[in-house]
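Now for a specimen:

…
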Amino acid sequence: MPAKKKASSGGKGRGKVEKVMHEYKHGELKSGRGGKGGKVKSRKQAVAIALSEARQSGARIPRTRSATKKSK
């Protein structure tokens, strides 16, 4: 029997992260929902926004270890 393939966050997740990081590099990424959201200046914040948007679009991306520990 062939070995099972490990589920990856490839498709939706990777595309969303690439798009958001591109916006961040070009200074187009904004934080917040409304029009007043300022430009994102932190790379960590940009990654967090990208992962959040990917999860909302249905990508299976696991939460961080610290977040799962706190919820238990």
